[in-house]
Amino acid sequence: MAQLLSSSCSLTISSRNKPYLKPLNQCSTPFSVMVGCNNSRSPLRRLSLRDQKPRKSFSAVHAAAVSTSQDTPVQTSSGDPFKAKRVMVFGGDGYCGWATALHLSNKGYEVAIVDNLVRRLFDHQLGLDSLTPISSIQNRLHRWKALTGKSIELYIGDICDFEFLAETFKSYEPDAVVHFAEQRSAPYSMIDRSRAVYTQQNNVIGTLNVLFAIKEYREQCHLVKLGTMGEYGTPNIDIEEGYITITHNGRTDTLPYPKQASSFYHLSKVHDSHNIAFTCKAWGIRATDLNQGVVYGVITDETAMHEELYNRFDYDAIFGTALNRFCVQAAVGHPLTVYGKGGQTRGFLDIRDTVRCVELAIANPANPGEFRVFNQFTEQFKVSELANLVTKAGEKLGLDVKTMSVPNPRVELEEHYYNCKNTKLIDLGLKPHFLSDSLLDSLLNFTVQYKDRVDTKQIMPGVSWRKVGVKTKTVPA
Ligand code: NAD
Ligand code: USQ
C-alpha cells in the first residue's frame, strides 16, 4: 500500500521570491515549483516538481502552424464591439486546457497559460500516469515556439492565491479568460473528507478569485468557465441550456435549470455557477458557462504536430473517463468496466470539439451582465452502448474484447430518461466530430500503440460513494 498524500490544504507557490511576478515566457532552464501546505497536521508534504528528465529529441511532424478544418471566421453575435485578442487559459497544462491553449494560439490569439501543476502532483501522489508520455510545460512551450514561432506566456501559480492571480491580471491584461483550473475528478472528490474539502475549496475559491480579479482589474474581460453537464443530474424531463421557463400557480418565469449534482466535484461546479450568475447580475460581469459533457480522444491538429506536444490521456479509475478508459481496456485485453446496469446516459464530445467550442465562445462574447449557459456535448450515449461500440471496433482490429458488469461504486440512476438540448454552440457554427467507426478505430489504434505503458492495477475502481469517510484514505498502489 502506498501512503497517499492528502490535499486538504490550500496549495500555494512559495512566495519568497515571487516567481509569478513575471511571466515565465519560454523559460530556458527547468523551473522548480514548491507546493506547500498551510496545515502542519495535513499529510501533504512539500513537494518539488522539477523537470529532471533529459530532453528527448523528437522529430517534428509538421514545421508550421496548421489550419484546422473549421477555419471560417466567426462573427460577434451580441452586437457588442468587444473582441478578445489576449486570452489567459487557467489550467492550461491539463487535458482540455493544453489542447485549447495551442488551438487558440494557432488561431492567432495571444495566449498565456496559468497553472499550478497540481494535476501532475496528484498523479505522483496516487501513483498514476498518463497513457501518453507528456513533456514538462516548459518543454511543451519551447517546442510550440520552435515549430510555429508563436509564444505562449506561462504563469505558474495557484489561482486560489489572490495575490498571484491579481498579478497575472495586471501583468497580462486579458480580454478573455478560459477557466479550466479545477480538481475535476468525481472519484477523487469522493476518496475521503480531505479530498472532498480540497475539491470544493480549490474550485469554489479559485472561481470566486477569478470573479473578483475581473471586477477589480479587467471589468470588460469575458469569463469562459468550464462547467459540467453533471450539474443537471438525470431528471425525468428534458434538460434545457441553463434556464427553464416554468408556470407555477398561474405565474411564469424563466429560472436557472434545477441542479442535482451527484458528487462533491459536480457540486463544486453548481456552487461556481451560482457565484458567477450572481456576479454577472451584481457587477455586470460577462460570462459563459460551458456545461461540458464527457470528453474523449487525445489528438487535435496542434497536439499532433510533435510528440513533445502530446496531450495527457488518463485511463485510471480516478481521472480516466468512460470512453477513453474503454479504449485502453480493449487495447490491453482487460474486460470493459461497465458500472452497474450500464444504462447511465451522458453527453459526450471529441476533444477537437472542446477546443472549437471555447474558440466560438470567445469569438462571440457574452454581453456585460449576461450569464450565458451552453451545453457543450455533441452526442448522448448509454455507457453500455459505448461498450458495444468499442467491442465491435476492437473486433475489427483483431482484439478479443469482453465486458464485465462492475458493482457500481457510485450513487447514480442506472436506467433513466435523458434528453438534453445542445443547439447554442451549433448555432454559433460548431460542426461536430461525431463518434464514427473510423474515429473509434483511430482512437483504439492510438491506445494499442501505447499499451505497454498501461498499469492494469489502475483500472478497477477503488473509490466508493457510499464508503467515503472522515479518515484520510490510502489507495492501493
Ligand atoms: P485536468 O485535471 O487535466 O486539468 C486541470 C488543470 O488545472 C491541471 O493542469 C491543474 O494543474 C490545474 N489546476 C487545478 N487547480 C488549480 C489551481 N487552483 N490553480 C491553478 N491551476 C490549477 O482536467 P481537464 O480534464 O482538462 O478538465 C478541465 C476543466 O474542464 C475542468 O474544470 C473540468 O471540470 C472540465 N470538464 C472536463 C471534462 C473531461 O471530460 N475531462 C468534462 C467536462 C468538464
Ligand atoms: N462509468 C462506467 N465505467 C467506467 C467509468 C465510468 O460505467 O469505467 C460510468 C459512470 O458510472 C458514469 C459515466 O460512466 O455513469 C460517466 O463517468 P466518467 O467517469 O466518464 O465521467 P464523470 O465522472 O461524470 O466525469 C467526467 C469528468 C468531469 C466532467 C464530467 C462531465 O471527469 O470533469 O465534469 O465527465 S459529465 O459527466 O457530463 O458531468
UniProtKB/TrEMBL annotation:
CDD domains: SQD1_like_SDR_e
Positions of the NAD-dependent epimerase/dehydratase domain: 87-375
InterPro entries referenced in this protein's UniProt entry, alphabetically: Epimerase_deHydtase (IPR001509), NAD(P)-bd_dom_sf (IPR036291)
Pfam families noted in UniProt: Epimerase
Family: Belongs to the NAD(P)-dependent epimerase/dehydratase family.
Record-given protein name: NAD-dependent epimerase/dehydratase domain-containing protein
Native source species: Lotus japonicus
Lineage per the UniProt record: Eukaryota, Viridiplantae, Streptophyta, Embryophyta, Tracheophyta
